[in-house]
# Entry
Amino acid sequence: MNREMVIVVDFGGQYNQLVARRVRECNVYCEIYSYRTDIEKIKEMNPKGIILTGGPNSCYEEDSPTYTKELFELGIPVLGLCYGAQLMQHILGGKVEKAHVREYGKTEVFVNPASPLFSGVGTPVSEAVPGVVCKDHEANSRETICWMSHFDYISQAAPGFTITAHTADCPVAAAENNEKRLYAIQFHPEVLHTQEGTKMLYNCVRGVCGCSGDWRMDSFVESSIQAIREKVGDGKVLLALSGAVDSSVAAGLLSRAIGKQLTCVFVDHGLLRKNEGDEVEAVFGPEGIFDLNFIRVNAQERYYSKLAGVTEPEQKRKIIGEEFIRVFEEEAKKIGAVDFLAQGTIYPDVVESGLGGESAVIKSHHNVGGLPDYVDFKEIIEPLRDLFKDEVRKAGLQLGIPEELVFRQPFPGPGLGIRIIGEVTAEKVRIVQDADAIYREEIANAGLDREINQYFAALTNMRSVGVMGDERTYDYAVALRAVKTIDFMTAEAAEIPFEVLNKVMNRIINEVKGVNRVFYDLTSKPPGTIEFE
Ligand code: XMP
# Structure
């Protein structure tokens, strides 16, 4: 597909995906490539602009990641960020050194509004600021808050460059050669702490690079439908539908493209949240809104009997994973050979598997590579491979998938199996499903559902004595979990108003048989995990 594109060249910075996401928020399509990517490949892609990311190295050291000087001679606008900015200056004859003061965090930056990147950015500087080193553009400079994180700094801009921003400690916070359309920015416009970062990136990709902003989810849906039809022809496609966002949107898109040539197998392992199996069926089943073959496998009893007596969390995960393969394999055999196996792979899966950028931590993803060898298929089809999660959600809404499904919280593959401490039984599943449904309902009633990133009820393995009416009880304790997090790698317990927690506790104890205590889990991650297993 020949689309208008900006390329992010990744030097191993932690914000590589964020850069691409922010560019896409400007309605410009963007892909991430490692700095090891050959320049010929970049030329072939004919990008409208190139962005060089940050990275952990010092550009003046011998083995540090670098790029050929030719990149800056293609006539394509280049924006360097942090390490990318330093590298650009270093390669083009500027000077980069270890700074006396490390700049880290929100920093006041003085920018020249005459720069095309800073057009409309900042507020007039009200008072003379002591310690300002650079005088180049002081007369009309404006101030704005930006996110800095660097040890090295550009002590001297390369020949042909003008300084367009500085801070109290950093004489070259930005420099540009506007004629050649080369821009170096020491701070991170992609991080939300840079208050006007989105505007700067917009100025770059829509202004300097001249992108028209044609990357929109409605046109993505339309063009994907065409592309799927062309690729699939009259072939058959099989998809394992979990009911989570990615596979649901993939199912919706494929269904709109090829209708009944698509078969979705939905395995209900009996470890889903309350009513979830029926909700998935209501959308994708025969009475739903999509035209496809829907097979629901009610495998609850199979899973419960495999899990009987098992208490160790890793073993539970293993059993649940293996059983899924077995059930799916049986269904696939009944269906027979298909032409395509569809997967809900999304762009972060691709990047984090080391196939896109230069991720420092390369994770192995179950849905990239490692193709199931038990399904008889010719080719993989991944209709969401280019999308970030927020784009998947927008595409889902475009396709008419209900909001409850599109904005679902992350839910682990092994489901409630890992939110029940100790042995999993049908009775315990019922308890945790009911408690969780009450908790979610009350969080939504309190208007907190989009504020807290993940929240759920789990069942401890602890039973203790209580009184209900005149009777002594000996029942389970439910644990409530709620976390605020950006990347799910670290998290903090959310501050839920006491009255909300109190109401949840009252309702759970009154309405869920088998529970006589409710705890709120205050643990952050680390040392805890988000899940309660
Ligand atoms: P932890 O518990 O490791 O969870 O802090 C981090 C995030 O990952 C989700 N999670 C899973 N997601 N399969 C998944 O698809 C799994 O096996 C799994 N285990 C944890 C968890 O819900 C949280 O969002």
Observations:
- Residues 410, 412-414, 454, 488, 525, 529-531 surround xanthosine-5'-monophosphate (CB under 6 Å).
- The mean pLDDT is 92.
